[in-house]
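Problem: given the chain below (86 residues), write out its structure.
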Amino acid sequence: MASARSARGLHKLFVGNLPWTVGNQELRSYFKDFGKVLNASVVFDKKTGLSKGYGFVTFNHLSLLQNVENTQKHILEGNYLNVQKS
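Solution.
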């Protein structure tokens, strides 16, 4: 499956430990400093509407994803983010 993603040029990151105040726009805004973000989505609980504290960010270039991974610390609204390839 990873090769299928690479063939299409989509590179996805899991982002954990998001503050509950962060929505899709804030997530996109943070990661756009690394390059063009194709999609940024925070996962919300369907019953409560509250953030589950994680989301996903998709880039179209592997080099952008690698730039994110090479950055030692990611801090958003005071939380250290857990960033991993998805």
